[in-house]
């Protein structure tokens, strides 16, 4: 195997999506946003009118999910049934609902299978990366989806830093009102997600990068440093 696999996990607001994209672009690797896959599955179930608490019905929808992930780190894309859902899946109703889908173990098995296939496809010369490899990012990539990745990283940040980042993403400001408005969503989502995946503590062999005191460029450099020590 020559393709290089980088696995990055972390809680919401840790900056892992932006950092992973920048790292993938810098190294000429593909980029897989697995959170976008859970969001797309949630969007699809809501679109189809399936109650998210109906576990087996949700699992059946996801088993037939017509999902296509674009893995170019400069312009990643998500299509479901031919519809570009890149913006729709970032809306607050999806953020509020996604944990109900992500805590469905049959859904995790199915999306995990798709994620492994997407990672394996990047070992192919005919892939986006021409066989160079991929940066895959989420909550359980270092532990469940790609535990044998060449580099495994946990990107963390203090709660204050994560809430401020999230507030800037969603509201364009990190003043007290914006932080308050994102607080419940972020903390409840992390608490719900934590019931099925561990992404707050690094597993054995996983390197932690704490971005609380780092800006984006510094965080990208810290991650590239870790990768450079392994590659
Ligand atoms: O990373 P992002 O905030 O877009 O992830 C959205 C949701 O997808 C998370 O809150 C979690 O419920 C789910 N997720 C997951 N496992 C992953 C990636 C995301 O359960 N590997």
TrEMBL record:
Compartments where located: Cytoplasm
Listed EC numbers: 2.7.4.25
Entries under Pfam families matching the protein: Cytidylate_kin (PF02224)
Transmembrane listed as a keyword: no
One GO biological process term: pyrimidine nucleotide metabolic process
Reaction equations catalysed: dCMP + ATP = dCDP + ADP; CMP + ATP = CDP + ADP
UniProt feature coiled coil, ranges: none
GO CC, alphabetical: cytoplasm
SUPFAM superfamilies attached to this UniProt entry: P-loop containing nucleoside triphosphate hydrolases
Molecular functions (GO terms): ATP binding; dCMP kinase activity
Domain (Cytidylate kinase) ranges: 6-227
Main EC class the enzyme belongs to: transferase
Family the entry assigns: Belongs to the cytidylate kinase family. Type 1 subfamily.
Name of this protein: Cytidylate kinase
Organism: Cellulomonas fimi
